[in-house]
Every structure is written in C-alpha cells, then in structure tokens.
Amino acid sequence: MLLSLPPAFWGLIAVCVFAAFTQPQFLSLPFLMILLRQAAPLGIVALGQTFVVANRSLDLSVGATIAFVNLIVSHAMWNGYPPAVPIAVALSAGLFIGLVNGVLVTVLRASAVVVTLGTAAIITGIGFLYTGGAPGSSMADVIKWLGRGRIGVVPVSGLIWLGFAIVAYLLMRRLTIGRYIFAAGDNPSAATYSGIPVNRTLLVSHVLSGLFAASGGLLLSGLVGVGSLNLGADYVLSSIAAVILGGAVFGGGAGGAVGTVLGAALLVMVLNLLTVFGVDQSGKLIVQGLVIAVAAIIYQQGRRG
C-alpha cells in the first residue's frame, strides 16, 4: 500500500528531511513561497501533460507552445489593447496547437512523438517569423502580476496553479472524460469494444495539454517579464519527469493530478537545493535523470507487488 503512493510523495519527504539538516533556511516560509512561484508554471504544464500520458500519448510541443505564448504577449503590437486581448490570443493559440496535435494523432494515426516534434518545429519557425528574430519587451502589467504578484505572502501564480490542479483533478477523477482517458490508456482495444470514443478522448487530451501549456507559458512569461525565443525549452523534459514522479506509467493508463503536483514540487525543490550546493547545469541534468529512473523503477516494482 505504501509503495503504491507516488514516488514524488516519498521524494518530497526525503528532500525536506535532508534540507532540514543541511540547509534549514530552505524550508523557511519566504523561501517556500519563492519555490511555489517558480513551480507554478511547470506544475500547470505538467498537469496538461498528465492527460496525454495517461492516454498512452505524449506532447513534445509544450516547450514551443510556451515560447510562442511568450512571444505573443510580449509583442509591441498589443500596445493600447486591453490585457485581456493578448491573453485570449495566447490561450487560443494553445488550444489550436493542441487541436492540431490531436487531429494528426487520431485521424492520421501518426506517432505522437513525431507529430508533436513536428508541431514544435513549425511553431518555433512561426515564432521567428512573427518576431523577425527579435522578441519584444512590451508586456502588460497584469501579465507580470500573474507571474510575479502576491496576495499577502502567497504568490498569485501559486493560487492559479491550485485552481488548475482542482480542475484537472475533477476532470480526471470525477467526470466521465477522466474515466474515458484512464480506460483508453489502460487498454485501448477493450475501451473501443466497450463503446468508449477512444479517438475523441485522445483528441480532447491533446487539446487540454495545449491549453495547460499555454496557461503555464503565460505565467512563466509574466515571471520573466520580457520576450525570449528559448523560453520553456527545458519544460518538455521537466513536465514529463513531473508526471512520471507523480506515478504515471507509460502505456498503463496511470497517473493523476495530485501526483503530478507533487512531482512538479519535488523537481523544483531538488533543482533549487542543487543550486544552493553549487551544482552546475550538467550536474542537475544528471541528478534529474537519476531521480526519474529510480522513481520509475521503484514505483513499477510497487505496483507489481
């Protein structure tokens, strides 16, 4: 029973115990609120990734979606418009990207890896054309407030992450679409024979992933405050890692919103703790890969047991 809990649950306990003995300030309330603000964009993107992973698919275009959203909301063309306009355009772009991925994967029966990699390349190219290779620096104060603002001591982005987590939990555990996603992910053939619209469910999963990626990109853009052609590039691996740490098993129809939230929190805490100890980027990548591999092995053994 205990081994069936997401690896991120035990990982968070281990990291907190280690930090308590080595870097006590790491667990102070101000520092935890900083970590919460940093984790929110990744947490939302990872929640969207959870839908497709639970449905035996994958979305490798989330990084390009984040970058494209950033280029949209930081462009000078929105000067004079209400902030709701670039926000609506950015979220609509995420929905459209997810829809294109879903249509290509379901209608053409194409590999999700190939499709979403191709989509990412196309989005990146469109972003370069849109900006002329020079990302803008104009961004509405409202968007910056979403990424940096606080209500009391709590980051606004953390509250938004909580809202998305609740929505994801309800979709996956309380509504019919969630039952369809897990059934199709667990056994697509059996789900088809049971009358479950497998293709439509997969399409919806990709649309949700696109929307969540755009939403996370919006918060990350507000946190950074300027346009960047490479923003979100590391979120592809990190979002998948958070889902795996949350207990998802590729091809097994497993995973969930709560586990993914814990997985994203664990990743951010580990990476920041490594920064405190002076570990460089190469070392962080190695540690991140080891954490994912060990967590997946332990969780698989626990499920078999």
From TrEMBL:
The chain crosses the membrane at residues 29-48, 60-78, 84-105, 112-131, 151-172, 207-229, 235-254, 285-302. Keywords: Cell membrane, Membrane, Transmembrane, Transmembrane helix. It is a multi-pass membrane protein. Pfam families: BPD_transp_2. It is found in: Cell membrane. Its main location: membrane. Coiled coil: none annotated. This is ABC transporter permease. It comes from Neoaquamicrobium sediminum.
